Amino acid sequence: MPGGTSEIEKVLDTEYTFAFQNHWENRLGQDWTSAVEGAFNNRKLNLPEEPASDGPAERARRTFLQANVGVGLDLFFGGGAYPFVVNAGKGYLVDSGLAAKHPDWFAESVIPQEVGGEPFYDSGYRWLGCCLSTFGICVNDDALDRLGIEAPTPDWALLADPRLFKEVALADPTASGTVTKAFEMILQQQMRRVLDRGDLDERAALSEGWATGMNLIRRIGANARYYANFSAKIPADVAAGEAAVGMCIDYYGRTFNELLRDEEGRSRLRFATPVGGSSTSVDPIAMLRGAPNSELAFKFMEFLFSKKGQQLWDYRVGTNGGPERQALRRLPVRKDLYVEPYLTNFADPKVLPFEKADLFRYEVAWTGRAFGAIRYIIKSVCLDPHDELRAAWQALIDHDFPPDAVAAFDDVSRITYEIALGEIADVLKRPSREQSLYGRGLSEHFREQYRRVEVLAKASDGRVTSSH
Amino acid sequence: MIRFLSILSALVAVLAVPFLLKPEYEHDPRLAKSPSQILNIITPHSESIRREFTAASRKHMRETEGREVFIE
Question: What pTM was computed for the model?
Answer without folding.
Answer: 0.77
